Amino acid sequence: TASRSASHLAEAQTLLDDWTETDYLLASVDDALSVDALRELPAPRRHALLRFWLQSRDVLMPSTRVLHSLEHDMLQAAHDRVPCVQWQGAVVHRHRDLLYVEQPMEEWDPAAQWNWDWRQELVLPSELGCLSVFDANVGQGMHRVMEGMQSYAISRSRLPEQLQVRFRDGGERIRLPKEKHHRALKKLLQESAVLPWWRECLPLVYAGDKLVAVADLWVSHEFAAKDDEPAVYLVWQREQNISARA
Question: What is the pLDDT of residues 86-120, one digit of tens each?
């Protein structure tokens, strides 16, 4: 009968919901989702888990067509690829074994530059956040750990009145405190936990033609504060987490 069929459907849906919550607990890594865990599930549970994950991230649910495209692109691409699927209000990236969902960025000019009076907050374009500088009491050399990356305080006396802020143009190099040689920023970013699609969005802070800092992740040895001098911290405030999850 119709009532019995409806009852069976309700029971099946309840069972699927229970599986989905369990699958999510096993597949989620912070706010990311494991590709390997998705591959191990039968199609109905995989689809349910993707929907559950997207709902948990408060993004607009994609159409069935986009969801199938998302599933195919993310599960089939080679391990070293970084596939991306976007729809209104959301974008999903894959990095290694994890899926990340974010709000899509508005278009912005990667060649843009700003002169910055660092005593004032600098608002960056396209929801990339803002840069601020705060006084610090230096006493231990290396002071902050942000998202697994060590950041040095900056010598206040070595900062000019005006700094310049721009994005990566390629070929940038930086010598980190306590290191003897310069390193290519491209390689440093590849070795770090910064997600690939964020690497071109990092604000680079310059004093003239000298690189002072890479966002609030790294400071050049030339501008890093010594233990006994007045210092400041550079802080990049933003909505998104730019680090790969463990």
Answer: 999 899 999 989 999 998 888 888 899 999 999 99
Please report, for residues 39, 48, 243, the alpha-carbon distance to residue 43 in angstroms, rounded to integers and kept in the order given.
Answer: 9, 9, 30
For the entire predicted model, the pTM comes to: 0.83
**Helix boundaries (H) for the chain:** 2-27, 35-39, 43-56, 64-76, 185-191
d(CA 175, CA 159) in angstroms, rounded, equals 17
CA–CA dist 76, 39 (Å, integer)? 10
Phi-psi label, residue 215: left if phi above 0, alpha if psi -120 to 50, beta otherwise: left
If you search the block for the tokens 């608002």, which residue do you land on?
Answer: 123
Give the integer Cα–Cα distance in Å for 166 and 203. Answer: 6
Strands 173-174 and 183-184 come out as: antiparallel
Q: What does the pLDDT look like over 152-194, one tens digit per residue? A: 789 999 999 999 999 999 899 999 998 999 999 999 999 988 9
Q: Where are the beta strands (DSSP E) in the chain?
A: 28-29, 32-34, 84-87, 90-95, 98-102, 113-117, 122-123, 130-136, 142-146, 149-152, 154-155, 162-166, 173-174, 183-184, 204-207, 210-214, 218-219, 231-237
Burial state string for 11-42 with b = 16 or more CB within 10 A and e = fewer than 16: eeeeeeeebbeebbeebbeeebbbbebbeebe
